[in-house]
Structure formats: C-alpha cells, structure tokens
Amino acid sequence: MDELDVLLSVIENPTRRRILEALVREPHYPLQLSRELGLSQQGIMKHLRMLEELDMVRSFTEESDQGGPSRRRYFPTTGFTIVVDIGPGLFNTEVAVRPFDDEPQTTASHEDGRRIKDLRAELGRIDRELDELKERRSRLIHEKEGLLEMAGRMVDSAFHDYQGRKVVYEYILHPEMEPRDLARGLGLRDDTVEGILRQLEGENDRRE
User: Fold this and answer.
1) Distant-in-sequence contacts of 36-41, Cβ < 8 A, 24+ apart
2) 69-73 long-range contacts, Cβ below 8 Å, gap at least 24?
3) pTM given for the model
4) Which residues contact 23 (CB under 8 A, 6 or more apart)?
5) What's the chain's average pLDDT?
6) pLDDT of 87-144, one tens digit each?
7) What are phi and psi of 57, to 5 degrees?
8) How many C-beta atoms surround the C-beta of residue 173 within 10 A?
9) Fewest CB atoms within 10 Å of the CB: 97, 110, 147, 190?
C-alpha cells in the first residue's frame, strides 16, 4: 500500500482515531486508554501493536510513582494531513507527513514563561489564519472545477475515442509535464501521445 492507503486504513477505524486523539494530548499507558475509551485492554493493545508496526506510535518505560511495576506509555511519532478534492473533472489527493520528536518531554519546560492565556490567544490567531486559507482554497478549487468542466466539454466534442480524451485530460491537469513523461505515466508510446497532442493543436488552430 502507498502512504495514502496506509493512513486511510488507520483512520477509517473509529477506535484507532480515538486512541490517536488521546495520544496527541499526552502519552498514555494501555490501562489508561482502556478506562478512557471503555474498551478492553486486550482490544487496546491490538490497535497499539498495529500502530507500532506502521511506525505511527512508539512506547517508553516509565517507573510507577506508587512503587508498583514499571509501565509502558505510548506516544505518537507522526503527524499528517490528508486532502482529497473531488469535483467536475477533478480528483486530487495530497498527503503531508510531519515526523514528531523521538520521545516526548515528560516534564514541563520552564524556558518559556508565557501564560496559558497567551498561548490560547496565539492559537486563536493561527486558527483564524487557517480558516482564511481554507476559504481561499475553497474558492480556488471552485474556480478550477469550472475551468476543468469547460475543458471537459471541449475535449468531448473534439475527441471521440477514449484514449485521446484521457491523454488530453492528463495533459490539461499536469501543465508542467512533458509529453514523454505523460506517455510514460499512461503506459503509452511517445509517438501516440505526440500524435494526439498534434491533433489538439490542430483543433486549437481551427477554433482560432
């Protein structure tokens, strides 16, 4: 599976989502997760082992503060963002992965004396900026969908064979891609793609 498939397989499970939601707040040990999520410790361990195998969580040993046996606490190792765009003529997926530090700090740092209120205000500012970016992105995606829908109608009227339409769609969607790379990505011969693109240029000349 590629990176997107792996991440989707993780978050499609509601229990794993709840585990990750708890771990990003602070490291947890399995019994703690079991009590918080209302699930058996055996079930929690099954999900933690899967997340460990995917290198999405790790654990460290911590001595008990009540004189009991040491315990293993789990923490996330990777943050990620998944974006999926689906619309007229548009299907796009993006994955951004952000590795975390090797092991979380277990004690508060005194280097920064900012109060919780100051941190909360700064987080509010960041959230507002992110909302503005999301709104701008949404407007641009809407504009892109309109252009692709227009291009789709033009391609449908100019190319009656499926292969020709597919090549032209990919050519439109990837402006930075050379015909040779386009042919390789589609598993076609270079001269086949070049011939279709010459036909496209001829259509453009006739329209002008």
Assistant:
1) 39/15
2) 71/29, 71/31, 72/29, 72/30, 73/27, 73/28, 73/29
3) 0.78
4) 57, 74, 75, 76
5) 89
6) 988 999 999 999 887 666 655 555 566 688 899 999 999 999 999 999 999 999 999 9
7) -135, 155
8) 15
9) 110
Cβ atoms 142, 86 nearer than 8 A:
no
DSSP state of 38: T
Q: What is the dihedral of CA 57, 62, 64, 67, to 10 degrees?
A: 150
Tell the CATH topology of 3-77. Arc Repressor Mutant, subunit A (1.10.10)
CA atoms within 13 A on the CB side of 186: 25
Residue 27 CB-density burial (10 A; 0-12 exposed, 13-18 middle, 19+ buried): buried
Cβ–Cβ < 8 Å for 156, 127: no
What are the boundaries of each domain within the chain? 3-77, 145-207
Helix, strand, or coil (residue 37): helix
Residues 6+ apart with CB under 8 A from 72: 29, 30, 59, 60, 61, 62
Question: pLDDT tens digits for 17-73?
Answer: 999 999 999 999 999 999 999 999 999 999 999 999 999 999 999 887 766 778 899
